[in-house]
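WARN no homologs supplied; continuing
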Amino acid sequence: MSLVVYNTLSRTKETFAPHDPKHVKMYLCGPTVYGLLHVGNFRGPIFFNLVRNWLEHLGYKVTFVYNYTDVDDKIIHQANVEGVSSGELAERYIKEFQADYSRLGLRPHDLNPKVTDTMPEIIAMIGELVEKQKAYAVKGDVNYSIRSFADYGKLSNRKPEDLMAGVRIDRDHDKKDPLDFALWKGAKPGEPAWTSPWGEGRPGWHIECSAMIRKHLGDKIDIHGGGLDLVFPHHENEIAQSEGCSGHGFVKYWMHNNMINFGGSKMSKSLGNIMRGREFMDLHGAEVFKFMMCSAHYRSVLDLSDEAVENSTKGLARIYSAMALAESLITSEAKPEPAFEKICGDAWVQIEAAMNDDFGTPEALACVYDVIRQYNAAVKRGMKANPAVSGKSLSLVNFIKKFGAFMALFQQPAASFLKTLDDRLLAKMKLDPTMVQALVIERSQARAAKDFAKSDELRKKLTEMGIAVADLPEGSFWEVQK
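OK structure emitted
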């Protein structure tokens, strides 16, 4: 089955066929670095890391570019608030983002260009647009004339006439049309500035991405990614700029991930429900963060409510619990068990079909759960590691890790991950693990003494605390209920 992707430009799924049959050029809009990134900013990096990995699995070479916007009104404002230069502020938050990105365990991008390193190319591109009468200079500014680009609005399905009628426009009498947008902004006191044919100034936001793409990937690329909120005006304006320069198509497949909600409400500063990615990882862990991002289809709204986090934690724990049991049963002589290897192979065919249908991660994860269900039906805690059990366990671990690698998931030693997860949950519940362990030991001693009334009483107490206990031949096993 060929890969099909949803193209925002055509508003339909299309069979994926890059310009070069062997090489995919992919660009993802990166962060404006003026603070720690919120959880929504990480959906693109997590998902498009998966896209790159899957394309490589299909045999393509992929060049993946992810930029840093280090010149922007927000950066300048925050730098003034903190009393530092905009360059110093931007560099600080690039490093902070890189620390968070590394914590997620995602692969590095091929290139991370910065606006400040692309200034000659930005100025040259603006010059071409002026020369081709797609843009005009006025009082030190340069504006793009959207009426000069006949296809303006094709990505967002918005026509200039509709925008004029339906959107309040602040009239700027220096613009030929109120909808024209800035390519170059004349310098203002206290702002960073560069020399250009139109005077000292700095670039507008939209031209930055067009120039970085052109510099590192050329005039035509295969995939351009970003959040759904960037379709208009950012990506619409990128098309106008890039195609206005080249005279031909710019991006073959526009892919946009959807937004994030908290408990049914759109995440926004006005509602006060903005959460930083780092804060989420501190509370719940990086693995839970990635798992939640991949549990929902990238084009659907993702809910990060407390209930959704709890459900995802349970789902992730279910996978790691099966892996922990399997890893404990794999011997050095283990070989994949043929019958269970076939179960995994059949599931892998279904996973490939789901992933090749516009990256259907929820359906793919359902296949993983199905394999785990069949493993749990055949292998129980307390079993001895005979060749059949050990072989099934090896097949399961190989299968889960193979799929998880595409999402940077399920690669940690399972027992230690579950211990870390339990410690985090115990801290949230304000329970001391030493106290829990003492109760479990006391209960085991009561069972050994055949004091079943006390044993039952202690089990009930542990259950009410949120602790699950299992009695095995080698002793009692406990974990936080999930």
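The longest strand covers residues 221-227.
OK
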